[in-house]
């Protein structure tokens, strides 16, 4: 069995001054509340816009934008809350976590443990339980990942197993991992059952109430929001080097629009986040400034990062075909 | 909060609003030193995965930590902190 490969700031050759780091780690409730209510207010406005567009073709772009903010926002906020860093008050953190994880469709305790695993063994094959299952990625694998359906199905399976009291973790290749202690199974079971009951409740509301409201404002947008969510998630590690302890090689930071930074809670500073996950999201730009001379230049943008990913996939495809021809 | 090493053993020593405390230095989840973490009131948060412990009791408060931290009696005498380890 492979020796565990541990990934952290030290293994990545970064060693910030401790006092500087402590300053960055400071917690408040204000930042998290401002971003959270900003997200909610935007959803309300976009939801109203969606309502006005019903019965016209404008409903299509309206639902795409609404679903993007809903899904990508829920993913980013629940990710930060899984770390416990966006709020100083724990009850606030856990309440926002539960709510946004419900929208993102991943049970929060399960996520906390598997995400800790991901941070400990970032992009290490067989050790990172959140590693992409389609490695090495093909073009079709990239498209499937972008559509986000795999993730949706994977999250659904985790919820069902959790609800049955069997949230055992395997990596994406199906290899079991001892990631979650059995003492947590009961809590995961009841969270999972609550989430599934709420999802079922939405369907019952639609059918029994003979109304499209839950479909238009929750179910459809959440599904439609998946590709947008993945658009901002894929560049984090895709086509970066696997099986190295230096996260400067396995993790990407990329530039993006301030509006995207706002709804993504600065997740595009992904290398910085992995180097020091205790630094709350709002301090990541400052952390980036402190480590920029020791880390690779950020990718120029989200689409540039995806172009880089697609070029790498195509290059590998050509190399594999050439190797196949040589062998023949 | 400071780190204190004695031979092969490592401790974290805290100065909180309710007094001085000492615990094992390493998180019970993975091997990260708590002295690099964050103290919020009477909670210590591990720098690696943000698991939290209650400093006076060592109680594990949030995943991914679930095993309590060992604590040690502390006394303050003439401006010096003594730990019974």
Overview of this structure, please?
The complex is a heterodimer of chains A (328) and B (85). With 328 residues, chain A is mainly alpha-helical. Helix content of chain A is 62%, strand content 1%. Chain A is built from 15 helices and two strands. Chain A has helices at 18-25, 30-53, 59-83, 90-104, 108-120, 139-147, 149-163, 185-208, 213-224, 226-233, 247-250, 258-264, 270-275, 284-291, 302-327, and strands spanning 169-170, 176-177. The longest helix of chain A is centred in the last third of the chain and has 26 residues, at 302-327. The mean pLDDT of chain A is 92. Chain B has no helices and ten strands. Chain B has strands at 2-6, 9-16, 19-24, 38-40, 43-45, 52-54, 60-62, 71-72, 74-77, 80-83. The A-B interface holds A 8, 18, 21-22, 25-27, 83-85, 88, 90, 109, 112-113, 116, 119-120, 181, 183-184, 276-278 and B 29-30, 36-38, 40, 43, 45, 47-52, 61-64, 66.
Proportion of strand residues of chain A: under 5%
Major beta sheet of chain A, specifics?
2 strands, antiparallel
In round numbers, the mean pLDDT of chain B is 92
Give the uncertain stretches of chain A in residue-range form.
none
State the end-to-end distance of chain A. Answer: 34 Å
Count of DSSP E strands of chain A? 2
- Placed side by side, the strands forming the largest sheet of chain B appear as 1-2-3-8
Structural class of chain B: mainly beta
Number of helices of chain B: 0
Order of helices and strands of chain A: HHHHHHHEEHHHHHHHH
pLDDT < 50 runs, ≥5 residues of chain B: none
Keyword list:
heterodimer, A: 328 residues, mainly alpha, two-stranded antiparallel sheet, 15 helices, 2 strands, globular, B: 85 residues, mainly beta, four-stranded antiparallel sheet, 10 strands, 48% strand
SSE order and pairing:
The complex is a heterodimer of chains A (328) and B (85).
Chain A: H1 18-25, H2 30-53, H3 59-83, H4 90-104, H5 108-120, H6 139-147, H7 149-163, E1 169-170, E2 176-177, H8 185-208, H9 213-224, H10 226-233, H11 247-250, H12 258-264, H13 270-275, H14 284-291, H15 302-327
Antiparallel strand pairs in A: 1-2
Helix pairs in contact in A: 2-3, 3-4, 3-9, 3-10, 7-8, 8-9
Chain B: E1 2-6, E2 9-16, E3 19-24, E4 38-40, E5 43-45, E6 52-54, E7 60-62, E8 71-72, E9 74-77, E10 80-83
């Amino acid at each position: 069995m492979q020796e565990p490969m541990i990934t952290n700031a030290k293994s990545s050759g970064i060693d910030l001054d401790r006092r500087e780091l402590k300053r960055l780690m400071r917690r408040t409730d204000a930042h998290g509340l401002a971003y959270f209510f900003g997200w909610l207010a935007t959803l309300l406005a976009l939801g109203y816009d969606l309502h006005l567009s019903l019965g016209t073709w404008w409903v299509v772009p309206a639902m795409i934008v609404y679903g993007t903010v809903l899904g990508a926002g829920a993913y980013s906020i629940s990710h930060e809350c899984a770390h416990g860093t966006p709020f100083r008050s724990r009850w606030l953190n856990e309440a926002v976590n539960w709510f946004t994880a419900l929208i993102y469709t991943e049970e929060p305790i399960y996520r906390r443990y598997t995400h800790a695993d991901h941070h400990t063994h970032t992009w290490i094959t067989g050790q990172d339980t959140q590693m992409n299952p389609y490695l090495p990625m093909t073009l079709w694998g990239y498209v499937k990942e972008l559509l986000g359906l795999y993730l949706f199905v994977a999250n659904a399976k985790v919820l069902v197993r959790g609800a049955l009291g069997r949230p055992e973790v395997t990596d994406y290749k199906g290899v079991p991992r001892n990631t979650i202690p059995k003492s947590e199974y009961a809590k995961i079971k009841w969270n999972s059952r609550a989430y599934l009951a709420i999802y079922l409740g939405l369907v019952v509301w639609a059918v029994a109430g003979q109304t499209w409201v839950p479909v238009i404002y929750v179910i459809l947008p959440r599904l439609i929001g998946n590709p947008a969510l993945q658009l901002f998630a894929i560049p984090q590690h895709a086509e970066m080097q696997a099986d190295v302890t230096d996260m400067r090689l396995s993790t990407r930071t990329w530039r993006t629009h301030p509006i995207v930074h706002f709804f993504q809670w600065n997740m595009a500073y992904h290398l910085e986040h992995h180097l020091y996950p205790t630094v709350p999201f709002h301090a990541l730009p400052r952390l980036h400034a402190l480590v920029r001379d020791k880390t690779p230049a950020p990718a120029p943008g989200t689409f540039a990062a995806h172009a880089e990913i697609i070029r790498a996939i195509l290059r590998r495809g050509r190399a594999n075909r050439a190797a196949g021809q040589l062998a023949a | 909060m400071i780190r204190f090493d004695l031979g092969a053993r490592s401790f974290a020593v805290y100065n909180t609003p309710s007094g001085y405390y000492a615990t094992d230095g390493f998180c019970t989840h993975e091997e990260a030193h708590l002295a690099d973490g964050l103290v919020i009131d009477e909670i210590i948060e591990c720098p690696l995965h943000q698991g939290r412990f209650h400093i006076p009791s060592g109680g594990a408060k949030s995943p991914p930590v679930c095993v309590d931290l060992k604590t040690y009696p502390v006394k303050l005498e003439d401006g010096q902190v003594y730990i019974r380890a």
